[in-house]
Amino acid sequence: DSNEIDSLAQFAVDQHNTKENALLELVKVVKAEEQVVSGKLHHLTLEVMDAGKKKIYEAKIWVKPWLNNFKELQEFRHIEDGNCDCLFYAIGRRRYYCIVCVRYESDEKAAGGEWESVGLEDPAVQDAARHAIKTIQQRSNSLLPYELSEVLHASVQVVDSSAKFDMFLKLKRGEKEEKVTVEVHRSEEGNFILAKMEDHH
């Protein structure tokens, strides 16, 4: 049940914030597994915002539903780059993107720095597209919000742990549709920057 998982994720963040006097904000649940013990032990991988920076945490929550809905946060730890059981999505023929620690790897056979086409529904592409729209909205004087209609084309260039996304996007603003070409850079730390934008009227 996704509502239960979301509720447990928020519980974990709230418990951590109270205990450590922190101000983490839950963004989303990246991964959820459960282990049957005396009750259930939920292993959650969470994306949170910490002072404006995106970070990944692992939480373990022990639940005993029959005992007045007993819940206990057993563990809550920050996942550093290179210290996670990486879940890789392919982005291009020999490029991989970890949805947990949000890092990139290249197959040793791949020549670094090549631009390669990438799946339009790839989570890395969708993240980059969302950032582009957010920045376009911030730079615009329009009161109408921009919405992503479709990613029409996307290429990625991976160098070490950073990446550049070249994307052709179809946007919607009210009843009006617009098409733009954008180049979004993603740093090793996971920060996105809209480097270039070109309108196609």
UniProtKB/TrEMBL annotation:
Pfam (any one): SQAPI
Keywords (A to Z) from UniProt: Protease inhibitor, Thiol protease inhibitor
InterPro entries cross-referenced by the UniProt entry: Cystatin, Cystatin_dom, Cystatin_sf, Prot_inh_cystat_CS
Annotated ranges, domain Cystatin: 1-79
Keyword hit for Transmembrane helix: no
MF GO annotations: cysteine-type endopeptidase inhibitor activity
Family (UniProt): Belongs to the cystatin family. Phytocystatin subfamily.
Protein name listed in UniProt: Cysteine proteinase inhibitor
